[in-house]
Amino acid sequence: MPKPTPLTPEQRSAVADDIRAGMGRNATARKHGISAGSVTNIARSEHLWFDRCTQTALASLNRSADLYRERVNREIQLWEQLLALPQTTRLRDGKETRAYRRLSRQLDNLHRHAKPR
What we know:
With 117 residues, the chain is mainly alpha-helical. 66% of the residues lie in helices and 0% in strands. The protein is built from 5 helices and no strands. It has helices at residues 9-20, 25-32, 36-45, 53-83, 98-113. Helix 1 (9-20) packs antiparallel against helix 2 and helix 4 runs antiparallel to helix 5. The relative contact order is 0.08.
């Protein structure tokens, strides 16, 4: 496969201008018909960066809050199911019923795999 032709200085400055204007990496690459890696390399050579740190941090925080909410909702469901079981959760031989074991194991796994805050 032949190597692609290098970008001209005019193309490189046009890409750098778009980065300075705040255009994103992928949008800049699409506009100029080059790869996102080339855009990144031009940004590095021009000492530019893509300022998305705050957006990434907010998205990460929102995602962890959503996962926490889902975990809490799941725990509520499991407790409701556990409390709805018949009063006796043991068989005649002293072993716990299958439904009780299943629900208690799910609750244990929910707590064991959750990241501590």
